[in-house]
Amino acid sequence: MKDEKIFVKRGEIKRLASLFKVSEVMIYMALRYDRDSELAKKIRHTALKSKADGGCGGEVWKRIK
């Protein structure tokens, strides 16, 4: 697990789940970097893309140690 997470709005999590045909749990695990599969990388990429480009406009938050 990394010290960063991707935050998106709740509605975007549902949209990502239907887009990739996976559960919302998988979306959460991908956005928290708990999974590092090709699918998880695609989910993170789409979550970070701007809304104008068809993404979710998510933000990366890093934990300060």
First-last Cα distance:
15 Å
Which class do the helix and strand fractions yield? Answer: alpha+beta
What radius of gyration results from the CA coordinates?
A: 11 Å
Fraction of residues in helix: 40-55%
H/E series: EHHHE
- The percent range for strand residues is 5-15%
| Tally of alpha and pi helices | 3
Regions with little confidence, pLDDT below 50 for 5+ residues: none
Question: In total, how many beta strands?
Answer: 2
List the strand order in the largest sheet.
1-2
Major sheet description: 2 strands, antiparallel
Let me know the average pLDDT.
86
Inertia-based shape: globular
Folded structure, characterized:
This protein is an alpha+beta fold and 65 residues long. It contains three helices and two strands. It has a two-stranded antiparallel sheet with strand order 1-2. α1 packs across α2 (24-31) and α2 (24-31) crosses α3 (38-48). The chain is globular. The two termini are 15 Å apart.
Tags for this model:
65 residues, alpha+beta
Summarize the structure.
The protein has 65 residues and is of the alpha+beta class. The chain is built from 3 helices and 2 strands.
Would you spell out the secondary-structure blueprint of this structure?
Elements: E1 4-7, H1 10-20, H2 24-31, H3 38-48, E2 59-62
